[in-house]
Each structure stands twice: as structure tokens, then as C-alpha cells.
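Give me the fold.
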Amino acid sequence: FAHVSYIRPHPPYRAPEGYHDRYDPDDGPPFKRLADRDAELAMHPIQAAGAHITKAPVDERELRQLRATYWGNMTEVDDQLGRLFGHLDELGLTDDTLIVLTADHGDQLGDHWLVEKLGWWDESYHVPLIVADPRPEADATRGTAVEAFTESVDVMPTLCTWMGAEVPLIVDGRELQPFLHEGSMPEDWRTEAHWQWDFRDPVDHVAEEVFGLTMEQCALDVVRAADHKYVHLANGDCFYFDLSDDPDQVVDRSGDLDLAAAVADARGRLLSWRMRHDDRTLTGSVVTTEHGLVVRRDPRR
């Protein structure tokens, strides 16, 4: 088993010779953001603080160069992965090796006038997940692009199932084998993705002092469906984005009376999800006089 982790792409935004100028800064799509930087950063203090702490460039040209350099870092990682996969070929191990490629987070790269990772934006949380299963059961699905929502917590149960090992009770995810071997999505598969961001600072207490919050209030949860996103902060603030009309997520509609029912529904789903995924270390366990310790495990849903 090899867990291979590359530090790049990552701040500081630098790339070695041959990669730094690989891409033209003028290429690529426009940044996802309001034209008025002050208006964008005024949506919530987290945005203004994030722009200040990460020293996000304001100049368009500088941001485009930063993004192009990031692309160069990505290409360098691609090249190094090519060396690794070539070595597997040389050793004759490719047909016996499960390969999972993913990342821990993305980068704002100028979107919403921000850089690095923070907040509730897709750019910080939408990461690749590529699985190459060498077993014959996966032959029919090779090259398939899956549009269903997956989460990082699905990686571990996928590995355990592939190795024939028991999935630990505390794991929140589900195995991806139905997509890999059957090419179909389970009927009870998730219809939205969830993520949490805890920005407390026990050492310097910076976030708490800046926002006037307790450590426990320095957190947020996100429910991201295909057509909407709901964000709930632990201090009670919330956001709602209608992704059908606002795919770039620049207009908060949580206070729109026409969407009050939709906001309430998303808030309720988030609460149910949080309750369903509380710590399960000892849940389903009971000590009885007749049978001793009884442990019952229900599958994840």
C-alpha cells in the first residue's frame, strides 16, 4: 500500500523552470465573482477577512498569472504521476493495483476575489476523484464519468471493500463499487454533497476575536444539491444560493420570502444529516445480562 501525497499545487504559488510559464495567463475563463470587489467581500465578514489574511491580489493580471502558475504545478504533478504509473508497468503491477486519485481541497484562484481555501465556495471543495480498478468486474465501466455526488469519506470504504476488510464503524462514507462494477447508482445514493469548515483558532484566537464568536461558533456546514446550496454558520447566519439562476453563487437569497420554504427544507435536511452522522463509536452497543455485549451495525444511508 502506498499513500502518495504531493505538496503542490499549494501556496506559495511558485513552479519550477519549465512549468511556471507553461500556460498563458490570458487563457482560461473569466473569474467567478462580482465586478465590484467591495460588494462581493461585504457579503460576510469571513470573505473580507479571508481576502486580507491570504493577501489575495486585486490586480487582474497578477491573479491570472497566479492561476497560470497553479496550472503549471498541476502539470508537474501529472508528469510525476506518469513516472509512478510507468514504474508500475515496468514491475508488472498495474493489473494488480487499485489506483485512487483525489485531493484534500481546491483553491479559489481569484474567484470571489479570494485565493487559497476557505468558506463555502465550490472552488475550495470540488475536488477530483478518479478510480482505476484493475479487476475484470470493472471492465464495462472503464472511462465512465459519474455525475452523482461523492464525498471524500467514500474513499476509505471503497478501499476496505476492495481489500475485503471490514469498514470501521466510525466511517461516514459508502463504497463506490456499484459505480465501478455495476455501472449503476444505488437507489438510496445521496442526492447532495455535504461539507464542514471549522475555522476556530485555539492558539491565537484570531477568528474568535475578529468575529466576536466563541470557538464553537467558528464553524459552518454546507448542503450542496444540484440546483441549490444552503450554508449554515454556527452563530446562526445562513446563506441560500439558487444555482439554476446563479451558478457562480454571488447572490444570497436566504432572506427571499419566495424561497422561505426552500430555505427551511434545506435547514431541516442539514439537521437530519448532522444527527444521522453523529459519533457512532459506541452506538448500537448494549451490555445485556443474557448475551453480554451486543453490537448491532446498520448500513450507512
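The CA atoms of residues 67 and 109 lie 6 Å apart.
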